[in-house]
Fold these 2 entries.
Entry 1:
Amino acid sequence: MKNIVGIGLLILMLVSTWYFLINGVDGRLIFYSSLILTLFLVIIGFNIFLENRDPIQTITWLVIFCAFPFIGFIFYFLFGRNFRKERIFRKKYFLDKQTFVKISGEAGYNERIKEMGENPQQLINLANRLGNSPVSFTTETRVLRNGEETFSNIIEELKKARHHIHLEYYIVRDDRIGGLLKDILIQKVKEGVKVRFLYDAVGSWKLARSYIDELKNAGAEMVAFGPLHLPLLNNKFNFRNHRKIIVIDGSVGFIGGLNIGDEYLGQVQKFGSWRDTHLIIKGEAVRTLQLIFLQDWYYSTNNSFLSDEYLMAGLPNHHVHGGVQLIGGGPDSEWTIIKSIFFKMITSAEKSVWIASPYFVPDDDILQALKVAALSGLDVRLLVPKNPDKRIVFHASRTYFPELLASGVRIFQYNEGFMHSKIIIVDDQLASIGTTNIDMRSFHLNFEVNAFLYRTESTQQLVNDYMEDIKVSNEVEIDEFSKRHLGLKLLESTCRLLSPLL
């Protein structure tokens, strides 16, 4: 029904616009157009009501329809349609689940989990059950704390590739670093390496066609995830692939916060210095990262490569300190996987919860968990950017500060450029690093991927890096923050009203 409504209203808008251009404003046409628009909005509102969304989200949409009917309609068809997302991605979900449940841990797997202690064991079991992915005790990781470290390591590993290179990114830009990576990929294709590149159609909408054609003409496979033809009528427009994945020869992987673009190297004046966190992974857990890519590739192309040459390459047989677990989440999941794991991390903390997120628009569950943790006497910290890159999200996030500060959460604003890291650290022992922000979109709409680290050396590195970031940040004081002028508070509250839709 919703597609019919969309097509009908789109035709109405086109006919009305054409009529106004030819004949000028006509009172009767305005009356009938308004009547039809109202009817369509009533139908949409009724469908939203039957979807049993969160009550606040439902009310927000209804208020927008009443106050700004035409703009509200456009905004809804771009960002608000659920379309029973479990139906849209049901095929993908069951294929992913059937594939992931075949993975098993190495010998002594259960014994190693028990050695981690009660809280990590519960978290591992939850992540395994929701994400169908075991923890690995034979995986090496290293934290990369900026664009220079990240891209220098990516380039080094790409040049070593012998069999295949798989890339999956939300944003790809045709700039200096994008061009350098493109040239390396073309060279590797000439050497006989298979290159598959999956990019998000919305995140990379500015990517030049010539960039794509050069890679394709060289022999690389480059595919758009969720391509859009008529955005207003496309029921998948709102569900985007936010993952950043590289897998090289099945034995080396990269995930984290950095897309492909010069701004992630701090070379765009608008953002200045860019603080981000990425992770290089070597060993068994790369197999899970490979599976996530291959399933996304299959969903986008109907081509499957689930064979030993992609899933069993370069797996070590020696144990390392701590465990690593790769989890993918998205609108195809039966549960809100990564959000549920975050919630468990916060509620099971015994000493501290440290979070870094460039976009902080939590839902009620995460917000309440953070406040209760702080009220219980835990050291709860939130690190956010001082300067915005997305103003609506930035202003919306600040409306959560007063209640967090009142409960004892310490909030720090990063001063040296833009902070884009997506980190959670619990009790200095458990950590998450990946693509997931603490916001509604990451929890419910985007395809994301995170690495969960259990008492690894990289966990300690994240702790050290977090402390260094705090040194170049300003702590938000509740008395000073409450003195914001009324106009700013009104702007923030307006953006907060849209937070269920962000």
Entry 2:
Amino acid sequence: MSNNNSRPTGIVPMSQKIAFGLGMLANQMFPAALGIFMVVLVENLGMPPWMWGITFFLPRILDAFIDPIMGFISDNTRSKWGRRRQYVFIGAIIMGISFVVMWQLYRENSLDYNFYYFLIWSIVFYVGLSIFSVPYVAMGYEMSDDFHERTNIMAISQWIGQWAWVIAPWFWVVMYDPSWFPNADTATRTLAVWVGISCMILAMVPAIFIKSKSTLNETSFSPLTFKTMGGSLKEIFLSFVEAFKNSPFRKLCIATFFIFNAFNTVAGFTFFIVVYYLFNGSSSDSGIWPTLFGCLGALSTTFIVIPLVSWMSKKMEKKKAFLVCQGISVFGYILLWFLFIPGKPYMFIIALPFFSFGIGSLFTLMMSMTADVCDMDELISGKRREAIFGAIYWWMVKFGFAIAGLLTGAIMSFVDFHPGAATQTEGAVTGLRLFFSGIPILGTLIAMWVMRNYDLTEDKAKEIKEELLALRGQQSSKD
């Protein structure tokens, strides 16, 4: 077993939690902005749904397969900066620059040029995202070994990160207001510069301010080098297999896969449902209502969901809090079916606090539970593999997100919906609405069934912690 006596325990200073949270703001602002800007590809640059689906799918698939490798590299890095900080810093730079460059698209270019240009730079961006996000998430798992403090860390980081989803929907207002920009693609080129640079700086904060011990003298692992690449790749595969043999971790991954990716499959439909169903296809008449849907939902998450989830997890444990929150979200999706009412757009606001419990509670609880799983794994394997577990967890998320992108385009084609058209075929918008509520409800119910017998309770986690402390003490006395 590696010597982990330097691992932090107990309460983490608020300054460290905020530093971690600012990284989460960057980590969430990039996908939040992407979700808004992607509409421009079909609405303003004329990409057909199949191209849109591919630009979602291919970069995310590559990103998903890089993550486990990045996790192994981070877990096995020997350096005076520790195992994480340098990668977080480098990844932040790659993400920021590539995000700016990939949105420099012009309608004067050919459709094929814009498609391939965007696809290539998307791949660069997602490579940078892997380099940043895998060690960044592992940082969070390492910050404390206390069962409830882990939830506090994740709650604060998610609270800060949620402001990305409050801010990003207002990009729609700026993009489609002619007093700001002549067209949405011009707006996107400019906004991408602001988002890319500001998020690059935010993403650097954890690397600069969250300190870590030197691992130069660490002997419990073998770094990934060209000389050891064959054996290391084999170890990555074996670590992947071992992680999925861990029953609690497997449940966390599968549940997240169904909830998060069911949500993302239909998230892009919000704009089209508001414009075409509530306002009969008029973007100008829809005004700020598409923005308010995302903004008010994020505010509900920030000020209602996350504080309640943090409180609930202490009162009823993490699994029960998860099941209750997801049940509330199912109710919210049902309400949205009835409260999208033409002529009365304000009615959907009633559903937003309930709807927000799904995604709003997901990562606060799941990231905290994954940290508990890392302790269980250390007790079994004798290794600290936060980055591997984080990478595999997010591999499931990203792999599903890639599939969600393909499904988004496939559903739009299936219901015969044509983005940008003045009118839609009969039943197209109704079809989008059916999928908008139906797919997340189905995904959430499957996830709740998977998590029904999750058994890594607080008592069990405390027993594991005590055993680890005893084993680390024995290891320290031997050293």
